[in-house]
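pls design
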């Protein structure tokens, strides 16, 4: 089983079978009468397509199937656009070439937002309805990110807008020490820039 373990991600439950059951399982892929000739390609394919349902039971949901997949060594959940780590730079502390890159990325998102919201007033109304500012009128970078991702989600899925574009857009705003920016400055920054 050590040879197979290196070539495929074997579920933990399958690794801990009794030795006789494991040998019986491997013998299913024996070629001809020679016990030393095993079709490893079919064996690995079967292991990778291993069904996590037992005794013919259908799992209640997809999550019950996923719980079995966590046994795979080194298995990592794929991140979505919502839980990916976004790097937001402070414009006051980056070199000039980074500022130019931030401006370029911001223009792409600005154009997309201007397509959807024809004027500053409609965007500002949507922003204030969806994002709750604190008592000082500030919103956090995470709130702004969630708002923007909600609008451009389809474009990101279709790869028209990348994660770096969103990072550049978020980096274009001036944040205080707590990572917040004024809600009134957001729409002005988007609609008063020349594209």
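designed seq:
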């Amino acid at each position: 089983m050590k040879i197979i373990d290196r070539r495929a991600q074997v579920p933990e439950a399958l690794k801990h079978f009794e030795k006789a059951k494991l040998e019986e399982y491997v013998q299913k892929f024996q070629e001809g009468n020679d016990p030393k000739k095993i079709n490893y390609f079919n064996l690995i394919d079967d292991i990778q397509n291993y069904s996590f349902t037992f005794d013919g039971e259908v799992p209640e949901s997809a999550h019950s199937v996923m719980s079995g997949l966590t046994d795979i060594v080194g298995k990592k959940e794929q991140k979505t656009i919502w839980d990916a780590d976004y790097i937001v730079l402070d414009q006051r502390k980056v070199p000039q070439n980074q500022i130019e890159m931030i401006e370029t990325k911001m223009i792409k998102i600005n154009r997309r937002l201007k397509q959807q919201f024809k004027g500053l007033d409609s965007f500002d109304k949507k922003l204030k309805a969806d994002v709750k500012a604190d008592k000082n009128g500030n919103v956090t970078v995470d709130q702004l990110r969630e708002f923007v991702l909600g609008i451009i989600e389809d474009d990101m899925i279709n790869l028209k807008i990348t994660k770096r574009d969103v990072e550049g857009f978020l980096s274009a705003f001036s944040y205080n020490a707590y990572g917040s920016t004024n809600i009134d400055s957001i729409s002005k920054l988007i609609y008063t820039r020349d594209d």
